[in-house]
Model the fold of this input.
Amino acid sequence: MIKHPERPIDDPEREVELRLVVDPLLQNLIADVVAEGWGTVETMGAIRQVMVHLEASYSQDPDPAEDPDL
Done:
């Protein structure tokens, strides 16, 4: 279960709090993918590439869920 943030958005420790939430989720994702036969390093590389793509996409459209259906 993902917990809600406890710190306000302007708190410098909020990023640390978020990393503590995200870290086990990513570790579980990597473990699941590796268990299916993919390599750890290649999995992490793929995640990195996906994150770069998502960061670029979200910087152009921060909330694509609000976009009208095409």
In short: The mean pLDDT is 91. The radius of gyration is 15 Å. The CA atoms of residues 29 and 43 lie 9 Å apart.
